[in-house]
Structure formats: structure tokens, C-alpha cells
Design a protein that fits this description.
Elements: H1 14-27, H2 48-58, H3 60-71, H4 80-99, H5 106-121, H6 127-137, H7 141-147, H8 155-163, H9 167-173, H10 177-185, H11 191-201, H12 205-229, H13 233-245, H14 251-266
Length: 267
């Protein structure tokens, strides 16, 4: 299957919502600096067709995450990361096999996989219960994997050592606080509006990797100005051209857009 789902999934079917969210994010056009139906954004190794293959490969795993969470729902939250990680790595391998080694959705697998896994553990599915459960599952993750390490083997470790940024780990441990803060300001009228609200506040590790803190602050200011002064399609197209020229891609905000769509659909 490609493209948007024919019908919106039930609000409690989190794996189906996660799949729909990835299609919604991909089809949203224009997306400044990101792959969409118009162009490849700031990516030379990715295009729309590659993302279609990636989504098709990883979405069958979402139901498996939920089933795994349900199967181990009797175990303490502190034990859950050890349980889910092998499946998360297998899902990543399915992505890499479909994309010839290109990282299209690693962040999305991490965030949406945790949401699906949490859905299998909670008694009642709600945006609040899922965020709380993800936070419980990831408690201490930043301390163990970033604070407790002096090396800089990964981009996340380097960014923490240099700038104190906690990246995807910190966002998950916080119960997706950045997404929840953006949703509080969002009127539900446009996914473009939600994306801009995320770009305005998210400490996006993708932007830092490409443009340092200067690149991150530039995109945050740009998004805030559009939100404050009003924007239309032409404004988004200009932002797209500017970010492509600067080789900036807010990929972390794209991942959080999918999370935000799931949480809003549950509400």
C-alpha cells in the first residue's frame, strides 16, 4: 500500500495510527528542507519513492511492538527497554534492507515503536497514558546513555557533550514533552502549522548535525517568525528553498510530527 490510508484508524488502534502518521508526514507538501512530493529537500540520498519503500517495510512491526508490550505488561517498566530493543533493531534492519542502507525512519521507529509498545501495556489507551508509560519505560535513559558516558561515539553523545542536548532519548524520557507543548498551541487546523510549532521549539539533532547550534537557532527563529506573522504556501516554499540552500533538514521535527499526529488522533 502507498499513500494515505482510506479510512482513519480507530483512536485506540495505535499501530494503525502510527502507520497512518508516517503516510501523513510523507505526503505533507511542501515541507521545508524535508522530502515531500515536490523535491528531496536537503537530502541527496533520499526521495519520495525511497520513503514509500521504508514505510512499507517498517509498519508491519508496529503491531508486533504492541503485542510485545502486552505480553510483558506484568513486568516493571524499568525492564522494558531491554525487552523492546531487539525488536527495534530488527525493525531498523528491515528499513535498511528496503532503503539500501539509508536511514529514513530510525527516529520514527524509536518514537512510534515506543508508543505502540506502551499501548500494549496500558489498561486504557489515551494520549496521557501513552506518554506517561513511555516516560516510565525510558526513565534514567539519558543518565545511563549520555551522562554516564565520556566518549563521543555517536552523534547523540557528541551533541550531549558539546551542547547538553539530549535528543530523541530525552524527548522519550520526558514523555514527548516537546510534542505535548506544541499540541497545546495547535488549533488542529493544519499539519503545516503543527510542523512549524515543532520546528520553533524542538532541539532538533538533525539540524545540529548539519548546521551546528547556529543552524538550529536559524530554523527555530524562521519558524517562529512565520507563526507570528502568518504564512501561506508561498512562504513555506521560500523556507524550503532557504533550508535547501543552507543544507538544513529538520528531520527530528518530522519524526515528532508523526508522534503529534498519533496523539492528536487518540484525543
Amino acid at each position: 500500500m502507498t499513500g494515505l490510508l482510506a479510512t482513519k484508524p480507530r483512536p485506540t488502534d495505535v499501530p494503525a495510527l502510527a502507520e497512518a502518521a508516517l503516510w501523513q508526514e510523507l505526503e505533507l507538501t511542501p515541507k521545508p528542507g524535508l522530502v515531500d512530493k515536490l523535491n528531496n529537500g536537503s537530502h541527496r540520498d533520499m526521495d519520495h519513492a525511497l520513503f514509500v519503500r521504508s514505510i512499507t517495510a517498517i509498519t508491519p512491526w508496529f503491531a508486533r511492538f504492541a503485542e510485545l508490550g502486552e505480553a510483558h505488561a506484568d513486568k516493571p517498566a524499568a525492564q522494558q527497554l531491554r525487552i523492546i530493543r531487539p525488536m527495534g533493531m530488527a525493525c531498523e534492519q528491515a528499513m535498511y534492507a528496503a532503503t539500501d542502507g539509508v536511514n529514513t525512519h530510525k527516529g520514527g521507529i524509536f518514537a512510534l515503536g515506543l508508543l505502540c509498545f506502551a499501548a500494549g501495556r496500558v489498561k486504557t489507551v489515551s494520549a496521557g497514558s501513552l506518554c506517561c508509560e513511555v516516560s516510565n519505560i525510558c526513565r534514567g535513559l539519558v543518565a545511563r546513555e549520555l551522562v554516564g558516558r565520556s566518549g563521543q561515539a555517536t552523534a547523540g553523545e557528541r551533541q550531549f557533550q558539546l551542547y547538553g542536548l539530549t535528543g530523541a532519548r530525552g524527548e522519550a524520557e520526558s514523555g514527548f514533552s516537546t510534542v505535548r507543548n506544541a499540541l497545546k498551541q495547535w488549533k488542529g487546523n493544519s499539519l503545516h502549522d503543527l510542523l512549524l510549532r515543532l520546528m520553533a521549539i524542538n532541539q532538533d539533532s538533525n539540524l545540529v548535525s548539519r548546521g551546528g547550534m547556529k543552524g538550529l537557532r536559524y530554523v527555530q527563529r524562521y519558524a517562529r517568525e512565520l507563526l507570528a506573522n502568518g504564512w501561506d504556501r508561498d512562504a513555506l516554499l521560500r523556507m524550503d528553498s532557504t533550508l535547501i540552500e543552507r543544507n538544513l533538514s529538520p528531520g527530528g521535527s518530522a519524526d515528532l510530527l508523526s508522534v503529534g499526529w498519533v496523539l492528536s488522533a487518540i484525543k
